[in-house]
Amino acid sequence: MGYQENELRLRPIEYEDLKSLWEHIYKEESPEWKKWDAPYYELKQISYEEFLTNKDDYVDSEQRWAIEVNGEVIGTVGYYWEHEPSKWLEMGIVIYDPKYWNGGYGKRLSVCGQIICLIPCHWPVSAIQPGQGM
């Protein structure tokens, strides 16, 4: 399951992706991507061994998917319910590697509607058109 358009692929995270994700997210004390990320949670540098204790939050998770370009994991797409009864859902796209910033990857995923297809929403899919907000 997933989505692919030319070099861009959105797919479930696999165990083999964990080392790369840890290097992008937690290896450095202050990674460049975090300077541009939403500021509402603190990022703490952790060891790879500690990261692996949370592997179930990543591998085959319905709420977090890998963004891959030419076979390299460059980011993730994720969502969580802030308040499910009111349908308040938070979602985000993070491109960790600066060399892929401004490449249009997040836009391509969201405009084509592929991210919307991953979210278990309660709106008819036909009501959400690519390029429109929900």
List keywords for this structure.
134 residues; alpha+beta; Aminopeptidase; 5-stranded antiparallel β-sheet; 4 helices; disordered C terminus
Concise synopsis of the structure shown:
With 134 residues, the chain is an alpha+beta fold. It is 19% helix and 25% strand.
Describe the 3D structure.
By secondary structure, the chain is an alpha+beta fold. It has a single domain, classed as Gcn5-related N-acetyltransferase (GNAT) (Aminopeptidase), CATH 3.40.630. It has helices at residues 18-25, 48-52, 105-111, 114-118, and strands at residues 3-5, 8-12, 64-69, 72-83, 88-95. It has a 5-stranded antiparallel β-sheet, sandwiched between helices. A hairpin with a 4-residue loop joins strand 4 and strand 5 (88-95). The longest helix is centred in the N-terminal third of the chain and has 8 residues, at 18-25. It is globular.
Fold blueprint:
Elements: E1 3-5, E2 8-12, H1 18-25, H2 48-52, E3 64-69, E4 72-83, E5 88-95, H3 105-111, H4 114-118
Antiparallel strand pairs: 1-2, 2-3, 3-4, 4-5
> Please, what is the CATH homologous superfamily?
Gcn5-related N-acetyltransferase (GNAT)
**Global structural class:** alpha+beta
Name of the CATH first level? Alpha Beta
**How far is it from the N-terminal to the C-terminal residue, by CA?**
23 Å
Rg, please?
15 Å
The side-by-side strand order for the widest beta sheet comes to 1-2-3-4-5
| Number of structural domains | 1
Profile the largest sheet. Answer: 5 strands, antiparallel
> What's the tally of helices?
4
How would you state the average pLDDT, rounded?
A: 81
User: Which architecture name does CATH use?
Assistant: 3-Layer(aba) Sandwich
CATH fold name:
Aminopeptidase
SSE order: EEHHEEEHH
- Please give the number of β-strands: 5
Helix content: 10-25%
Low-pLDDT regions: 121-134
